Amino acid sequence: MSSADSETVRILLNGKPQAVRAGLSVADLLLKWKIRPELVTVELNGTILQKLDYETAELRQGDKVEFVFYMGGGAWA
Prior knowledge:
The protein has one domain (3-69): Beta-grasp domain (Ubiquitin-like (UB roll)), CATH 3.10.20.30. The chain starts with a helix and ends in an 8-residue tail after the last strand. The mean pLDDT is 90. The protein is α+β, with helices and mostly antiparallel strands. The longest helix has 7 residues, at 26-32. A 5-stranded mixed beta sheet has the order 2-1-5-3-4, with no helix packed on it. A hairpin with a 2-residue loop joins strand 3 and strand 4. It has helices at residues 3-6, 26-32; strands at residues 8-13, 16-21, 40-44, 47-48, 64-69. It is 14% helix and 32% strand.
């Protein structure tokens, strides 16, 4: 394993610092957190990603990632 393979970067995930592998894709981040892509929208540095971009969007030092979840609910009273 090369040093590049084990390099980590710091990101903000939903406002909390996290260390992740450099170059980790958004799809892999979702997998790591056991989040189904169809249940979340991902915002990367203020830009909403299309689901088809999750595989190619790689995380870099200082990135800000937000997971926005869809929730079902009852009727308003």
